[in-house]
Amino acid sequence: MRRDRGQAVIEYGGWLFLLLFVSMVAVQVGLAVYAAQQAGTAARAAARVASQDQAQTDPAAAGRASISSWLSARIAPAASGDEVTVRVTVDIPSVVPGIDFGSATKSATMPRDPGRDGD
Fold first, then answer.
1. 63 found inside a domain
2. In the chain, how many domains are there?
3. Is residue 74 part of a domain?
4. Is residue 116 part of a domain?
5. Could you report the per-residue pLDDT of 24-69, keeping only the tens digit for each?
């Protein structure tokens, strides 16, 4: 019986590590989904502004204003003919230091205002 004294503590530590690992994976997946959703929101907002004839703001500024301030985003509008497409790339934050989880990229296309010239 004396040899079994620390067994419960070791088992508890093993399960605790496993539960923390599963929790971190769940949070990381949630952050990846959230970053992808925010990229889509920024792309739609920037495309909406870029398609307007007399926009009051810059499309990139509109895209950045529509997402959480703690996210890093790259916004690239491109006009072609009667439509404008905006591609937004949001870096996925990491809950594990030193590991890069990449980025989420979304794009949105909107028709340009009919009165807008082909600038």
1. yes
2. 1
3. yes
4. no
5. 989 999 999 999 999 999 999 999 999 988 878 899 999 999 999 9
